[in-house]
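Researcher: We're teaching a course module on how sequence relates to structure. For the next exercise, students receive a sequence and then see the predicted structure as tokens, so they can try to spot secondary structure elements on their own. Here is the exercise chain.
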Amino acid sequence: MSGIQLGLKENWKQFTLLVIINAFVGGMVGLERSILPQIAEQEFGIAAKTAILSFIVVFGIVKAISNYYAGALANRFGRKKLLVAGWLFAIPVPFILMFAPNWNWVIAANVFLGINQGLAWSSTVVMKIDLVGERQRGFAMGLNEFAGYLAVAVVAFLTGYIASEFGVRPYPFYLGIGLVVLGLVGSIFLIKDTQHHVALETIDSPLQKLKNIFWDTTWKDKNLGSVTQAGLINNLNDGMAWGIFPILLANKNFSLEQIGILTAVYPGVWGIGQLFTGKMADKFCKKDMLFTGMLLQALALIGLVWAQSMTQFVVLSSVLGWGTAMVYPTFLATIAENTHPGDRAKSIGIFRLWRDLGYAIGAILTGIIADWLGIAHSIFFIGVLTFMSSAIIKFRMSCGENNSVKMLDWFLRRPTQTL
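Model: And here is the predicted structure for the students to work with:
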């Protein structure tokens, strides 16, 4: 392990390459973000919300399972091999979406996309945490998620614009071919594995290994379990935003170009916001970050029920994006802070298993409620669930490290309390 060092400054070249690769990973999701529900209705005549949202259900389940195996196999096969494998599964996606003769082919594309996202995104997350060590995990995750979700927003906007100018197929998906080529080539030739960094950190780690990684991460450990349930609810409402939001806007007579803009605002604020919230997660009590972020999401979702104008949707989408930005890097930093380096990859994989099952659960719930009671009721219901998640964090979590700062104390300029 001669020459191996931990830290963002010490590993900035490899870290930067991983950030760029993760932007390509996020861009693959952006391909579908604004136009797939329109493809379902315009080209395949699918009207039922549950049928349209089937692609999110499949994507969420496949990605969740891939996350779990990415975590479970990371120590055995190495992070880089899983990253490259993730990109190999992405190759068919843009071609299937361009030429799919029926909706079942779109579902198949989302199986490949789910595997791509589970393996590739999980690998870049774990590798960045490996590189930076314990001091800057929040900032590292902020940069990682910033790159990924800003790319989601940019590609969602571009596909919406291209679809409005040239039609929903095939032109918007040409972007995907470029993303796959850049991601795969970069992963093979530029990325190095980080297993030696894990071994170095393990030597000095004061943390004990978890007795049962699956159940401790899922619920038994108060901090890990609180993070996991919040991750599930966060992606549950993101699945709703992905599938229902474009339909809601179309029903309110917004144009495809306007829908592209509005569907880009939420992941755009989410992505850019993490440049700031990731650093905040290194300073402030992680419980405060998670509680505030989930509460803001709940309020924004409930407010969307009554929104009418472009301005109202932009403001509420921005609040939803900022709330998500507060929790996303904090989720991963909290998992890393509460696990032994040898358990980290598997624990993150288990967290991401439950988190991304939220996509499927959210799509099913909102689709059923939207078909039964209407879109407004489905959005309101998800808002209430998100509020309940924030309450669990408030009453179950502890702040963790004694050197973290309570957000209210900092805001009121009070002396830092012992946590």
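Model: If you want an answer key for the exercise: DSSP finds 18 helices and no strands in the chain. The first helix runs from residue 12 to 33.
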